[in-house]
Amino acid sequence: MNSRKKKKRIRNAVCITICLLLLLVTLFIIQLLTGALGKFIKVPEPINNAIDKLKQTETQNPNKNDTETPSEADSSLFTVCIDAGHGGKDIGSDSDGRIEKDDNLKLSLAVEAYLKEKNVKVVMTRSDDTFLKLSARCKVANDANADYFVSLHRNKGEGFGVETWILSQADEETKTLADNIMSGLETAGIQRNRGVKQGTQGNSSKDYYINLNSQMPSCIIELGFLNVPEDNQLYDEHLADYAKAIGDAIIKTAEAYNVSGVKTDGSDKNNIPDANTEDASGLPSTSHTLNNTQIDISSLDTTILDWGQGSNVDDQNRPGGCLQYQEKYGKYNAHFISEGEKIIYLTFDEGYEYGCTPSILDTLKEKNVKAVFFVTQPYAKEDPDLVQRIIDEGHMLGNHSVTHPATGLPSQTVEQQQSEIMDNHNYIKENFGGYEMHLFRYPAGKFSEQSLAILNNCNYKSVFWSFAYLDYDVNNQPNEAESLQKLIDRLHSGAIYLLHAESKTNTAILGDFIDQARALGFEFALFD
């Protein structure tokens, strides 16, 4: 090989080496730059794809602007709030392992899905196993400015079929909504149409909390009895049919009242109070203020009387003493015995807690019975959770004075008596969401004519009793079987039963007493 060819090969090799080195350096620089920029810029997809998507969005929404909000884009016909009753720690009723809160949620979700298909905006109080107080449920509906509020429940007890509850002073739109729902459910297939009912089970002039505190037409549907196999079978087989029937009824009502795009302000709901007081889902709101006629107390008898129902009874088993005192002192809003054929009013005195009240409340919830619990101020201070539970579960809270004076309320001055009543009243109101008591039980059953008038002038009713027995001595509790028989033997219409909540005997026999009383045709009610 000559020297010229040799030099040429060397040059070529050098050039190739230099090019390779330059290429490697270039690639290395590019890699460094790419890594550095990657810390600040993240490109999720190729630019061309992004441009294509942007063009596609502009084609689908040619009039869309950056200031449009979800509410402005909402094309729903109107808004409905669906409430699945109970939830979380509040299971509602149960029977043979079947739990009400679960059934309520299943149907609520089915109604929600159906209404959304019909372009109706649905607001749910709960979509899972969550506990909400009744005030929170009403707040969901009211804050959403919903046009209708429908609360779904299951019943339990004696009976079968479906019923719907509405406000005692319901307007025509509310009545139409409930009528349409019942008609639709009857067509879908139910055992029995129990009708549209106003007020509460115990009193047609009172209202369930949901109905009272919602700012739109509302109703509570009790869709069959949880303890009736036939109702459960229909519930399971016709769940989708029930959802459709309820949804169609809501839409039909909205069309009839032309609510599309129009929201009710709730002005026809009879001056609805703030939803601060809690009770169990679908249970009576028991907090209200009386407006008693004021009585001149200056000339009334101050003699202290000791109340006891006595043992003499009439041909209807009603204590004679109760009938006489009711006639004599009823004008002072005093109740020694009440009206009502085969109606029982169940009351408990709460001077102190002995660990029995939770079990008593469990039994009352299981049996779907409401009662009055008369509490002193020390009790409310020491056991606020129990007091709140009493309110939450739809029972009445009664006033049993501040200090429970052993010598009786009328042994005090007029001013002291007023303080015993109103200081406890105001404490409960201030510490339990504005709850206002209106029933009073005299400590030790000691009263006078003047003290009855003083209580009346404080806008209270006095509640005595037509049955009581020695159940309050925790160290000497009566025999359970004998006590149960005694409670049954003394049954009479309009009975006011006084039971002490610290009694283990009462706690043990309460469920059996309720069952046996019902079997004899008696029902349990609350005072108005």
Question: What would a concise description of this structure say?
Answer:
With 528 residues, this protein is an alpha/beta fold. It has helices spanning 3-38, 47-60, 70-73, 100-117, 134-143, 172-188, 209-213, 229-237, 239-256, 320-329, 357-367, 377-382, 384-392, 414-431, 449-457, 480-489, 504-519, and strands at residues 79-84, 94-95, 98-99, 121-124, 148-155, 162-166, 193-198, 218-225, 305-306, 334-335, 343-350, 372-375, 396-399, 439-440, 446-447, 461-463, 495-500, 523-525.
Indicate the topology.
Elements: H1 3-38, H2 47-60, H3 70-73, E1 79-84, E2 94-95, E3 98-99, H4 100-117, E4 121-124, H5 134-143, E5 148-155, E6 162-166, H6 172-188, E7 193-198, H7 209-213, E8 218-225, H8 229-237, H9 239-256, E9 305-306, H10 320-329, E10 334-335, E11 343-350, H11 357-367, E12 372-375, H12 377-382, H13 384-392, E13 396-399, H14 414-431, E14 439-440, E15 446-447, H15 449-457, E16 461-463, H16 480-489, E17 495-500, H17 504-519, E18 523-525
Helix pairs in contact: 4-9, 6-9, 8-9, 11-17, 16-17
> Beta-sheet strand percentage?
5-15%
CATH H-tier superfamily of the largest domain: Glycoside hydrolase/deacetylase
Helix content: 40-55%
Shape: elongated
Total beta-strand segments:
18
Which regions have little confidence, pLDDT < 50, spanning 5+ residues?
36-73, 261-287
Q: Between the first and last Cα atoms, what is the distance in angstroms?
A: 125 Å
Number of helices: 17
CATH overall fold name of the largest domain: TIM Barrel
CATH class of the largest domain equals Alpha Beta
CA-based gyration radius: 35 Å
Mean pLDDT: 85
Give the structural class: alpha/beta
Which architecture of the largest domain would the CATH scheme give at its second level?
Answer: Alpha-Beta Barrel
When the domains are counted, the total is 2
Q: What topology, given as strand order, has the largest sheet? A: 4-1-5-8-6-7
Biggest pleated-sheet summary: 6 strands, mixed
